[in-house]
Amino acid sequence: MERVLITLLVACAGGIVGMKLKIPAGAMIGAMIAVAAYHIWCGKGEIPANFKIAAQIIVGGMLGLNFSMDTLYGLKEMALPAIVMLMGLMVLSVVLGIVVAKTTGMDLITALFSSAPGGITEMTLASEAYGADTPKVAILHLMRLISVITILPIVIKSVLKWMIS
């Protein structure tokens, strides 16, 4: 039990540092880096399996709070764009996952979850249930998130400038 408590304290400290540094998904990324470092150097990190189930329940509850009656009322006008986006993203992410697996030697399930659209927390938790290499999934999603936050606004600005002129 002592190892679990220390691991949770390390996670909390890392999460606080991640938030203070304003890292994207800082609480989770900071906790992940801190616990990884602790576990690598001390070999004593431990979190029981039932904590992972609790984390999934909490994330599910948090996602559920994003919905409102306005969300339901807006579904009709969002149906076609949602279908087009979902189908396009699914096809592209599956193709990208297969290409990554074939060209890099990464196992297919890890490549598919790593290339799937979604949040770091949600995709990492989902990937674990399917036996993917969750640290790789988390790191690749972090790299994607940082790239999207830093590069996409520049791309959008350029596209808008090109489309308007």
TrEMBL record:
Any one GO CC term of this protein is: membrane
Q: Where are the transmembrane segments?
A: 23-41, 53-73, 79-101, 138-160
Q: What are the BP-aspect GO terms?
A: regulation of gene expression
Q: Which InterPro entries match?
A: AbrB_dup, AbrB_fam
Q: What Pfam families has UniProt attached to this entry?
A: AbrB (PF05145)
Q: Which UniProt keywords apply?
A: Membrane, Transmembrane, Transmembrane helix
This protein's superkingdom?
Bacteria
- Name of protein: AbrB family transcriptional regulator
Give the species this sequence originates from. Anaerosolibacter carboniphilus
